[in-house]
Automatic annotation (TrEMBL), chain A:
Lineage: Bacteria, Pseudomonadati, Pseudomonadota, Alphaproteobacteria, Rhodobacterales
Name recorded for this polypeptide: Putative methylxanthine N7-demethylase NdmC
Gene Ontology BP, a term: methylation
Group of enzyme by EC: oxidoreductase
SUPFAM superfamilies assigned to the protein according to its UniProt record, in alphabetical order: Bet v1-like (SSF55961)
UniProtKB/TrEMBL annotation, chain B:
Xref: InterPro entries: Glutathione-S-Trfase_C-like, Glutathione-S-Trfase_C_sf, Glutathione_S-Trfase, Glutathione_S-Trfase_N, Thioredoxin-like_sf
Record keywords, A-Z: Oxidoreductase
Keyword Oxidoreductase: yes
All copies of domain GST N-terminal, residue ranges: 1-81
Source species: Roseovarius albus
Protein's UniProt keywords contain Transmembrane helix: no
Lineage of the species this protein comes from: Bacteria, Pseudomonadati, Pseudomonadota, Alphaproteobacteria, Rhodobacterales
CDD domains for the chain: GST_C_7, GST_N_4
Uppermost EC category: oxidoreductase
UniProt domain GST C-terminal: residue ranges: 88-212
GO terms for MF: oxidoreductase activity
Protein name: Disulfide-bond oxidoreductase YfcG
EC number: 1.8.4.-
Length: 301, 212
């Protein structure tokens, strides 16, 4: 076992995202934080990836040589990201089949540091109620503030929280939208720190655009939020799609950073029902059952 | 007029905000600042060798630096003459003084925000300490101004481009871990700025203080 500050095996035994593969400069050492530990990573010209607990021999910015890494951590290369694990790595990572469809545009839209716990950020992502007030004129607009009844379940086969039949009026659901429309949403939380949303694509009604949020807990109250889109859109440039998503995320940031407490309370009685809607309640229960303690306020026994 | 723009940049926001207040239309060209670093690309360096935003192009003139651009826009397009009081040497000097101060806020509060939000490699503790030092000075200044019945950074009854230049990185400071809790006069001034006719927000800045 590694000597780490974080002792929560639930969070240690997960794959955690460190960087979009697209963004890793080849041949140099990069450094970041994960679960209060300093982690280094690199990729060489052959595509060999490694991650390791940072040490003084291989500092950030120095040349990366895979052969020089004596204590590598587990790595996974999936869904466009580099993932690592500081405990027992699970055999598989959640599925994300759309990512691998040949006509998809996969656009990592940036990684942002946010002073909040991962759980709070996931919950904000799942909450449609804030659209008209925070993303005014884009993802929502008064007086269309109603969140219609929808379904939530914890899928037994896949161990994930799924919300379906969600509907919301959106003035500009995506960059490719020409007018306001009722938009259908599906949310998935297939990983304690990752969430995906599926919404009908403005260019092809039969398919869904996917927006994802993969969170890297740097500490209990600080995250790196990896955001991205996987869309059916042959009109807009990579940069325009990215810019649209960054505008949205920039609007969420002060909301996230003003959450109090910064950690997610798992006790269903801890917060008023407005803030803890159906999906949030299911998500908190699911985390509770897993026994998560990192970045949350566990239910008192 | 064209603004080379990036939504999350507070310095670009200074220009968008002021043009909105002046009710002057303009086009924008989005620069892939993050993560693309497009502002460091050869075509952008040809426009601004410092590799920074904002930059404007207006009737063939290319201008960089938010404070310089505000000065130019006010002198050229503000028909009231209030935002940059050319005829009043005392107030003009004050405006220049606080425009320089605004760049100091960029060097500290904005740096801390870039560190925390976009992972820039810099001494964040020094940046935060520097920002608190400037905020303390601004807060005291605004407190005395209020005591004298004045609402804005420079003397007189009308806001100036100094208010526009100082506002963005003050209001975004929490993204860099800099609380405004100890600066009540700054908080009241922020609310007044938000009530200026033509005020617009940006991602991270809400038109009213509802989110705070
Ligand atoms: N003094 C300049 C500072 C501008 C500045 O720092 N711009 C940032 C964006 S908000 C930038 O381009 N930074 C890149 C760099 O400094 O390398 C101004 O006020 O315009
Ligand atoms: Fe949001």
């Amino acid at each position: 076992m590694l000597d780490l500050n974080c002792k929560d095996s639930v969070i240690l035994n997960q794959w955690h995202p460190l960087s979009s593969l697209e963004e890793i400069n080849k041949g140099v050492v990069h450094k970041t934080r994960l679960l209060d530990a300093s982690i280094s990573y690199g990729i060489d010209d052959e595509g060999t990836l490694s991650t390791w607990l940072s040490n003084d021999h291989l500092k950030a910015g120095q040349p990366y040589n895979a052969a020089a890494i004596t204590d590598p951590l587990p790595v996974k290369h999936a869904h466009g990201y580099l993932w690592t694990c500081l405990g027992e790595p699970p055999e598989t990572l959640f599925s994300f089949s759309e990512f691998y469809e040949s006509d998809r545009r996969n656009v990592p839209t940036g990684v942002f540091g946010v002073h909040v716990s991962a759980g709070r950020a996931v919950e904000n992502f799942l909450d449609m109620g804030h659209f008209p007030f925070v993303h005014t004129g884009i993802l929502g607009e008064e007086p269309h503030t109603e969140v219609k009844e929808y379904d939530v379940e914890v899928s037994e086969t896949r161990d994930e929280v799924v919300a379906t039949q969600c509907q919301f009026y959106q003035p500009q659901a995506a960059l490719a939208s020409k007018e306001g429309a009722m938009v259908d949403y599906i949310y998935r939380v297939p990983h304690v720190n990752c969430a995906l949303l599926y919404k009908s694509s403005p260019t092809d009604e039969s398919r869904n655009d996917v927006i994802y949020l993969f969170l890297q807990p740097m500490g209990q109250e600080q995250i790196r939020a990896h955001t991205g889109m996987c869309v059916v859109d042959d009109m807009n440039s990579h940069e325009d799609i990215r810019y649209f998503q960054q505008t949205i995320f920039g609007q969420d940031k002060p909301i996230l950073e003003n959450q109090y407490p910064k950690r997610l309370p798992l006790d269903p009685r801890a917060e008023t029902p407005i803030r803890a809607d159906k999906t949030a309640i299911a998500f908190r229960r699911w985390l509770s059952r897993k026994g998560l303690t990192y970045g949350v306020i566990p239910v008192e026994a | 007029m064209k603004l080379y723009d990036y939504e999350l940049s507070g310095n670009c926001y200074k220009i968008r905000l002021f043009l909105s207040i002046l009710n002057k239309s303009f086009e924008t060209q989005t620069v892939d600042f993050y993560p693309g670093q497009e502002h460091k690309s050869p075509p952008m360096l040809a426009l601004n060798p410092l590799g920074q935003l904002p930059i404007i192009e207006d009737e063939g003139k290319v201008l960089r630096d938010a404070q310089a651009i505000l000065t130019y826009l006010a002198a050229k397009y503000d028909e009231t003459g209030e935002w940059y009081p050319l005829q009043d040497p005392d107030r003009l000097g004050e405006v220049a003084q606080w425009l320089a101060f605004a760049d100091g806020i960029t060097g500290t509060a904005s740096a801390a925000r870039l560190h925390d939000g976009l992972f820039y490699d810099l001494d964040v503790e020094a940046a935060r300490a520097g920002a608190h030092r400037l905020f303390r000075i601004l807060d005291e200044h605004l407190w005395f101004a209020e005591q004298a019945g004045q609402s804005w950074i420079c003397s007189g009854n009308h806001p100036t481009i100094a208010d526009i230049a100082c506002f963005p990185y003050v209001i975004l400071s929490e993204e860099g871990g800099i609380s405004r809790q100890d600066y009540p006069a700054i908080r009241r001034w922020c609310d007044r700025v938000k009530r200026i006719k033509g005020f617009i927000g940006m991602s991270g800045v809400f038109p009213t203080s509802a989110a705070a």
